[in-house]
Amino acid sequence: MTLFVEQLANGLTVGAVYALVALGYTMVYGVMKLINFAHGELFMLGAYLGFTVLVSTALGGALPAGAALLVIILLAMGGVALLGLTVERVAYRPLQRANRLTAVVSALGVSIFLQNSAMLLWGPRYRAYPGWAVPDVRWSVAGVHVGLMQVLILAVALVLMLGLYYVIQRTFLGAAIRATAIDHDTARLMGINVDRIIQLIFVIGPALGAAAGVLLGLYYRQIHFTMGWSYGLKAFTAAIMGGIGNIPGAMVGGLLLGTLEMLGAGYLSAAWKDAFVFAILILLLIVRPTGLLGERVAEKV
Amino acid sequence: MARTAPRERLAQEETVGVRPPRPSTARARGLIGPALTLGAVVLGVAAPWLVSDYWVDVAVFWGIYALLGLSLNLIVGEVGLFNMGHTAFFAIGAYATVILNQAWGLSLWLLIPVAGFLAAAAGYGLSRPIIHLRGDYLLIATIGLNEILRVALLNNPRGLTGGPNGVILLDQFRLFGYGLDRPERFYYLVWGAVGLVVWGLLRLQRSRIGRAWNCVREDEVAAEAMGIDVRQAKLLAFVLGAGLAGAAGTLFAAKMVVVSPDSFTFMEAVILFAIVILGGMGSIPGVLVGSAAMMVLPELLRNFAQYRMLFFGAAMVVMMIFRPQGLWPSRRWKAQLAGEREP
Fold it and tell me: Which residues form a coiled coil (chain A) (predicted)?
């Protein structure tokens, strides 16, 4: 039972990170019908930006730990959002009318480019996140260990997700995004600037991904320039699980994937956990190709 | 020429278009293709004597990736199925080669069809449940399959795959007592195989099933209405492509000597996918050019060692923006590209 609760807590923590990254995939897919393979790299760059700010500034002394953390996350989010905008402008905008696979290959090109940029800038070795930003506090409740970091990750992720959900569902901007996702041309007729909305998607998604990157760096303490591939792929899997293009779906999918992965690692085998995740994905795709929350749409073939 | 009214001029041009060109020019034009092909073949045969062993090796890997690209082109290019897990079948072929060679001492010549068959069988078994998935869903499912296989190889089930270190192949190709492990001999083996496969695929493209595949790619519903068994056509392409990749795995194992999971990462799958798209989907010469771009260009950039993957990624983007139809597009693929992006 202890193992179960602990793995559940670990799973929810990692799952919250997956969910934040998955939101970026699902929003881009919802609006542009494009798998943004570069998104995992943006997440990785978020982790590296956070790392750089953490090690190179005097924030540690000047600000209390919590405030410093907030500043770092916001800086990483801002930096990566700018990068996301640039990627959209350079690699996707010229391909809006092109064949689907063309855009996929372009996205893969961006991904390789960003990954190698990170390697050149920060070196090929693992980098260690300094631990001072979050005090290593752990509680033991009825034999179950829970860390402050886990609580913090869940809290930050929850706040960001609720914020996004509010924007999408309740604001005029959100309505414009939803309209664009349904039909670009009709949205344009309604006076929505579709290009702006796409740019906005490429600001929000990468910003959330960057926050996830910083949180993951703080959690595992280790970052590497290839982590964008693996975490990106899993986050994408989470988006598909929830029903790609569906925002609550990405949140549920992320939390579910993290939990399943950690339970799989705890009860089956840690070495096989990645295979376990993808096996579940394939089974899900066979049974319910549109994901858990995705509606069955009559699609034009 | 006297001025004519637009309508008459149009009519005139139409007649000119219909009339066959003068026989001499027609014959000359008809000779350009074969002459270029002959030139390329002569150059290809002479190449190992003109360049250093290093470049012969580069050409060997180009050939192996050309075979892989051709096999993936059957699936992605001819039928339009998004498969980004193709290295799985390549890996199955390579591992089967080494393991069976060690276990039963089967000759590598025999292992080419055996590895091909095993990969094709795996292709059938793995693709059957997911072949109905459309577009991006199939893409992610195949990525998943590839990852599952890679994790399995790393975990060394029953001590067969040697985990992260891989397995070593002790045998080599032999022909009339000559070992084919010298670079130029291996070069002839690989490019001989490429020639054979290209010939076979050209025949296949023009066959009934080849045309059915293109039909499925252009419009699945219409293909179904025309009486094509879409599911069977897709499965056949998947099985053939997987089998060919598996057979290429034998050549790869013989060249690399060590077969390890490092050779079958997601990045490799991306490279294969890019070969097909960069070359031009459904275009056989395109795949040869695309694999050259992916395998030979990075070697030319070796001097820039650490920056070369950076250039490489940027080149992929630039290429897609300025030449989305690929380096050597298939004529039959143009109609689809002219249309809008599918919803």
Answer: none
Nearest CA in chain A to B273: A105
Give contacts of A 224-283 with B, CB under 8 A.
229, 233, 236-237, 240, 244, 271-272, 274-275, 278-279, 281-282
Contact B189, B252 (CB under 8 A): no
Q: Domains of chain A: which residue ranges?
A: 14-225
Contact B277 A91 (CB under 8 A): no
CA distance A20 to A231: 11
The secondary structure element, H or E, covering residue B142 is helix B135-154
This complex has an ipTM of 0.82
CA distance A281 to A259: 14
Residue A110 to residue B313, Cβ atoms within 8 A: yes
Instruction: Give me the residue from B133, B312, B316 closest to A106, CB to CB.
Output: B316
What is the pLDDT tens value at each position of chain A, 301 positions in all?
A: 777 888 888 889 999 999 999 999 999 988 888 888 899 999 999 999 988 888 776 555 566 666 778 888 899 999 999 999 999 999 888 887 777 778 888 998 999 999 999 999 998 889 888 776 666 777 777 777 778 888 888 998 999 999 999 999 899 999 999 999 888 889 999 999 999 999 999 999 999 999 999 999 988 888 999 899 889 888 988 988 888 888 888 899 999 999 988 888 888 777 788 888 888 888 888 887 777 776 544 343 3
State the pairing for strand pair B178-179/B174-175: antiparallel
Residue among B155, B336, B343 whose CB faces A272 most closely = B155
